[in-house]
Input
Amino acid sequence: MIDLKAARLLDQNDPLKTFKNRFTHQENEIYLDGNSLGKLPKSVLSKLEDTLQNQWGKQLIRSWNENWLELPLRLSKKYETLLNASDGEIVFGESTSVRLYQILFALIESRNYPNQLITDSLNFPTDLYVLQGLAKHFSKLSIQSIQYGQEILADIEQLKEIIQTKPGIICLSLVTYKSAYCYPMKALNEWAAQNKSIIVWDLSHAVGAIPIDFKKTKTKIALGCTYKYMNGGPGSPAFLFVQKELHNLLQNPIQGWFGHLKPFDFDPQYKAAQGLERFNNGTPSILSMQAVEAGVDLILEAGIKNLRAKSVALSEMLIDEITKELETLGFELESPKNSIRRGSHIAIAHPHAWQICQALIQGDTLAPKIIPDFRPPHFIRIGITPLYTSYEDLWWLVNQLRMIVTSKAYLNFDEAKSQVT
Ligand SMILES: Cc1ncc(COP(=O)(O)O)c(C=O)c1O
Output
């Protein structure tokens, strides 16, 4: 096993090391949540303080013209830069679940694609629920959820064959939430286009974790949350990307006033805004959006390619340690070994995963608390967020996992699970 001194040396030589200080941390605690909620950037505190004290507190309604109306547009531009989208191809607002329903509804109603929804069992439950809800609404719509031979990886040949034989609208999570498996985005977009189909990508576990280029990958529609690797805060609004040529073919099923051509004319008749702005609904959530901006600014400053390089280096060290140190203790690697097929978290399985997670979180007198997350039936997800994850953090993780299992310290914890894991 790599020793603590060597891990610290790697941290000293890390070109991104100063970013750790730009986040708030708890003493004696290592955050490896994988990744349900990113950490709080320090700059959010001053931004929100200004928004509350000056903009809301003093300027009140005037702040819409002075600051707030342009905030979602500014965010969209920053995400367009990060993801290589063209001007006007991203809008902000709502949760990923609501956005997914809206955009799938619009695609189905456009009648440009066969009446078939396809997803797979690796997708996040909310995506599956949204698809099931749509199938209830559109009686002629059929829905297929592909089961692969294994729990953690997609079988791309099987997926392609299904797209070819039953084309339609496909919804996939680019990086899957359990194993961090990452699909070949460009190849699948091309395959879908050749087969009268379209893929709607959920990027919740991918944005900020891996470089994504919408133009190069020929992506048509994508969306995702901003509270994971983008550090936008709990419940921060989602983004929606739609390639320009589709804008005027799609109608927003929620005809809210912020999607009107001229919202402040208060016209009693709805007229859709030009372009993707028609997918706006109601008043944007300004407080949350301020935090989203602080998060994306940090990613742009560090550079997504640099972040990815550090994520791969950290992940490879961890995989190496898992193979050498932990497999004999009953742990199994549940994420792809090949970094091209992997996002930025590592999943490991153990029959006592839930109790081991509780022991990690509690820490002990000699070691920091470590916060991973648990996913049923027996996965521990370890989030690698290169803005603030260090080699030393991973050293402690491996050390504690080994200690908890060899000493059977996990037996001190209940097998029954709590709600938020
Ligand atoms: C892949 C994926 N999609 C969607 C969601 C849920 O998004 P929201 O709560 O914004 O609807 C999550 C939440 O973790 C997720 O991992």
About this structure: The domain at 4-31+303-412 is CATH 3.90.1150.10 (Aspartate Aminotransferase, domain 1).
